[in-house]
Amino acid sequence: MTCERARALLGGYLDNELPPTEASAVAAHLESCTACRQQYAALSGVGPVIRHRLPRLAAPDVLRTRVTSALRGVDLSPARSRGRGFWVRQIAAGLVIAVASSAVTLFISRQAPPDSNAAVHLVVESHVRALMTRHLADVVSNNEHNVKPWFDGRVTFAPDVPRLDSLGFPLLGGRVDSIGHERVAAIVYGRRKHVINLFTWPASRRVRAGGEDLTATELGYNVVRWVRGDMQYAAVSDLAMAELRQFVTAYRQDRPAAVMQ
Fold this sequence. Notes:
A hairpin with a 2-residue loop joins strand 4 and strand 5 (194-202). The protein has helices at 3-14, 20-32, 34-53, 61-72, 84-111, 116-133, 144-150, 205-210, 241-252, and strands at 139-140, 157-158, 171-179, 182-191, 194-202, 214-218, 221-228, 231-237, 259-260. 25% of the residues are buried. Residues 78-84 and 102-116 have low confidence and may be disordered. By secondary structure, the chain is α+β, with helices and mostly antiparallel strands. It has 2 domains: 3-108; 137-260, Phosphorylase Kinase, domain 1, CATH 3.30.200. It has a 7-stranded antiparallel beta sheet with strand order 1-3-4-5-8-7-6. Strands 2-9 form a two-stranded antiparallel sheet. It is built from 9 helices and 9 strands.
């Protein structure tokens, strides 16, 4: 089993929804693959956080209506499907994930303490969301001349997008994401089988006044955050903190701050 296939099945494995053969294959892969095992550990921590930090709410009428409407268009006959239960779970799960993703973002942004730790909660949430939805890049390229211009008109600043391939951190692409209610540039780098999300967005006056670098760990992910000029940056990955610091040092080395447009 490949890492890509194993990670695609981690959600079902966590919820005990995989057929026995697939569950056994995932379990065997996790025993031999450190990277996937770390991903599994990180995802395992998401459920308890959501259960303990999010309030329990009854499903709103609009969600019930959407599920019912979606089911009307699906042929659930045994001869043409994998079973009624399977499709009900698939459709409901898709709708619930969409609602839950927004709920998690809103709840964390409201509940996180009004200090530097708030940004840590939010960048980790955005990193995990990108991994779970496999939406890492809107522009996929290892060429900074493709990635950097792509952000023009999509964010209000011009992020720096250096190539760090020679230092072991290949550029993978970029996307526009959100940190709380802020529109941010997410530049994606790799390190072996690990993903590094580098978030860039304007710094408030209060954040600029603080100015000090911050390192933190949450849900098994390491975060390095810093401020330069009018911008703030946050690198997040399941890499060891020492390697993530190496990446940050490489990115910051003789690099100008992002420029507001």
